[in-house]
Amino acid sequence: MSLFVIIFFPTIIILLSGNLLWAEGWLLSIWFDAMMFSNMIYMYKKNPELFSERINKHQNQKKWDKYLLTLLFVLSAFWLVGMPLDAQMFSWSPQFPLSVKIIGCILLIPAFYFLIRATIENPYLSTVVRIQSDRQQEVISTGIYSIVRHPQYLGIILQIIGGPFLLGSIIGLIVGICIIIIIVLRINGEEKMLVDELVGYLEYREKVKYRLLPGIW
User: Fold this and answer.
1) Strands (E), the chain
2) Which pTM value belongs to this model?
């Protein structure tokens, strides 16, 4: 699986771009490899139960989440495939200024941090919306979870914006906005489930006021 992850992103991004010397594409590919590989190694070594949680199917996943997750998967595929085709192979987008690409690169730094820290600090960080009663799920309120309630989603959103900025893809930005809308819908549904079904989450929500952005939302 690790070998597949390492090969997958450069194969998609670089080969679809048609430019083996595309520096921005290699930067994003290496970022994806480092982020995914770090998460996998951490779970394998430190939290194999979370690894199993993420790769197995679960009967009590919320039905509405199955539809949203499928839509997210399809949009993410369009996002990943569309950017190298847009920015390099067919050059549909105009050339982005260097300053915009630098901003994109900078956004990927906190994105990496939030995605890794969320995995380390939350042993119940599943890919599906469900209450993990089989794992005695508890509210996590320390670390970055004391700042925002959904740091993993924040990392994903920063990645979804930073990637198209770095590569120079308007299509990536358009698809990314659609992904962000789905994430916001998913957060609202997940919050309702957690308040209704997870002991202590209502008190946690009152303590940590913001879902994604301190002072905003």
Assistant:
1) none
2) 0.93
Q: Are 183 and 118 in contact (CB under 8 A)?
A: no
In a domain, 44, yes or no: no
Q: How far apart are the first and last CA of the chain?
A: 36
Q: What is the pLDDT of residues 155-198, one digit of tens each?
A: 999 999 999 999 999 999 999 999 999 999 999 999 999 999 99
Number of folded domains that form the chain: 1
> Contact at 8 Å (CB) between 65 and 126?
no
Mean pLDDT across 55-63: 86
- Closest by CA to 201, choosing from 123, 118, 135, 145, is 145
| CATH number, domain with residue 174 | 1.20.120.1630
Neighbour-count burial for 76-101, b at 16+ CB within 10 Å, e otherwise: bebbbebbbbbbbeeeebeebeeeeb
Amino acid at the residue 216: I
Instruction: For residue range 114-149, list pLDDT tens digits in order.
Output: 999 999 999 999 999 999 988 889 999 999 999 999
- Which domain covers residue 87, as residue numbers? 72-207
Establish how many alpha carbons lie within 13 A of residue 157's alpha carbon, considering only the half-sphere containing its beta carbon: 17
Q: Does 63 reside within a domain?
A: no
